[in-house]
Structures are given as C-alpha cells and as structure tokens.
Amino acid sequence: QAQLVESGGGLVQAGGSLRLSCAASGSIFSINAMGWYRQAPGKQRELVASIISGASTNYADSVKGRFTISRDNAKNTVYLQMNSLKPEDTAVYYCYADLDTVIVNGKVYWGRGTQVTVSS
C-alpha cells in the first residue's frame, strides 16, 4: 500500500505565494502520475495540475501562468508552486497519485488535503 502526506498550505494575502508538497511512501514500484485537485466550499472538486510519468504537465485554465507543478522522482514527491494567488484560489488542496505498488497497479491514492486561504 501507499500513503500521501501533504504540507505547505496556509494563509496568504492576495498576490502572495505558497508551495505545496506531497510525498508518497510505501511499497511503490512506479508513479504513473501525480497532481493536485482542489475543492472550495460549495463547489465540486476540480483538477488544478498534474504531471504524468516523465514530465508531461497539465493545468487548469484558471491557474496557467501562475502555478507550476514539478516532481522529484528520487523523493517520490510532487510540488505545486503557487504564485500571484487570488482569493478565488482559496480551497482545500488534495494531492493524488496513480501508483503501481506490490499489491496493485494503477491505483489512485489521495492525501488528506491541506487548506489554502488567500485573503483580499
């Protein structure tokens, strides 16, 4: 099995920056994809950014040019650098990882979520 642990959320003023981290641990053979979703109060969970095995990245239109996703393969860790934050970025951010483990291939794991609050 595997676990994801997120860190880096918090409170920041509009225009500021935060960096989220998510480390995957456990009996991992390979990481097929990692990324971030977010869910604001009263809204559906939405994909923010993802990085496929290798370096292919995908971003929501609302964060393009402001957020950057990256991965440290040696540490099984994905990062989300968030710049020029806006109040509408306020949400709980969830890390996910599509992993091959000793038990099963291609299973998606989720972190517990980290709160990001952007004040105006």
Question: How would you explain this protein's 3D organization?
Answer:
With 120 residues, this protein is mainly beta. Helix content is 0%, strand content 62%. The chain is built from no helices and 11 strands. The protein has strands at residues 2-7, 10-13, 18-26, 28-39, 46-52, 57-59, 67-72, 77-82, 91-101, 107-110, 114-119. The strands form 2 sheets. Strands 2, 4, 5, 6, 9, 10 and 11 form a 7-stranded mixed sheet that branches. Strand 4 and strand 5 form a beta hairpin. The protein starts with a strand and ends with a strand. 31% of the residues are buried. The model has no long low-confidence stretch (mean pLDDT 95).
Detail the poorly predicted runs.
none
| DSSP strand tally | 11
The oligomeric state of the chains shown is: single chain
Shape: elongated
Summed up, the helix count is 0
How would you sum up this structure in a few lines?
The chain is mainly beta. 0% of the residues lie in helices and 62% in strands. It starts with a strand and ends with a strand.
Task: List the main descriptive attributes of the protein structure presented here.
four-stranded antiparallel sheet; 11 strands; 0% helix; elongated
Topology:
Layout: E1 2-7, E2 10-13, E3 18-26, E4 28-39, E5 46-52, E6 57-59, E7 67-72, E8 77-82, E9 91-101, E10 107-110, E11 114-119
Parallel strand pairs: 2-11
Antiparallel strand pairs: 1-3, 3-8, 4-5, 4-9, 5-6, 7-8, 9-10, 9-11
